[in-house]
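Re: Re: ligand-bound prediction request (bumping)

Still looking for help on this. To restate: I need the protein modeled with pyridoxal-5'-phosphate bound, output as structure tokens. Inputs repeated here so nobody has to scroll up.
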Amino acid sequence: MTRRGFSALSVVGLRAGAAWAQHAAVTGPAPADTVWLNANENPEGPPPECREAIARAIAEAGRYNHRVFPVLHEALAKLAGVDSALIIPGAGSTEVLHCAVDAFTTAARPLITVWPTWEMTRDLAAAAGRPVVKVPLTAQWSADVERLADAARKARGGVIHLGNPNNPTSSVTPRAELQWLVENLPADTVLLIDEAYIQFVDSPAVESGVRYVREGRNVVVTRTFSKLYGMAGVRVGFGCAPAALVKQMQPFRNNVISILGARAAMAAVPLGDAFVSARRTRRNHIRAALCQWLDQRGFHYIPPNANFVLIEIGREVSEAIPRMLAEGVAVGRRFDGVERWMRVAVGTEQEMEKFQAAFRKVVG
Ligand SMILES: Cc1ncc(COP(=O)(O)O)c(C=O)c1O
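Reply:
Sorry for the wait, this slipped through. Here it is.
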């Protein structure tokens, strides 16, 4: 193979891996002091209680620790406010999203997904030979619930997938619309609500789908410790669903999660609502300052609900990304349908200053 052929191949390889490993989506060398605003992580990282729990768990790491997992289920159930039979843990919420696609879609039962969105379920369904139906978001960037239900009815959808808030738009689907969708779901379609970012939402118009799980509806809700809790590298998340759906998803799990992840999650639960709201307030304060700066400069963005903002930049983001990186700022990758928008995660105040300086230089 020629050298040129080889490098073209490696670029293709990186792009194919983009949804799975977001840092890998940043092509080209990154300056040593790069600020990483490309994967919607939390710069605060793991809370001290979780760091200590992880350190202590090293002593237990010689064993499989199966006796610990029922305790983990109990802790996650407490966090979600459901019975522990309704919990399915995962290596991040990604594993649970995988389980749902594996369990509830087939070659004859497509994945119906909002679009644009984080492409992981689409990629997995496509790789497994399951058809995918993409339903565009509304003009307000929320899930188009009527079209989703209609598509599920017509195509015999196995799963309807939506993010609340949605990535990359940072937009939400209000309570009334979600409720309409739950009430109008075809009888054997599962609604998969990805709530990776729900703890950042301030709007009283938004409600978690866990309520529908408690009611025994055909709903799976996924949550994660990767975002607000700042533990993306620990790989721990969970889903909650009626026990019958948990039972169907369970065989598709990779395995149990590591004892380090389990102990970190169990240390996070007692931190309670005060911790969640303090982190939300700090993050959203920095987010508001970014939005104000964008307003002053006349840039349009989607009013954000998560720890990232999608900004209309009026040019191809795929050209802007490497130029931002050369300035030491890694921003989100390009998403279908919003090719002229840039997604940036909310970092520290210093990181956002660096972002603003690079943005002024590259975008204007
Ligand atoms: C919308 C959405 N859902 C789920 C995830 C997966 O997160 P994790 O597997 O770390 O819980 C991400 C990661 O960026 C995401 O953006």
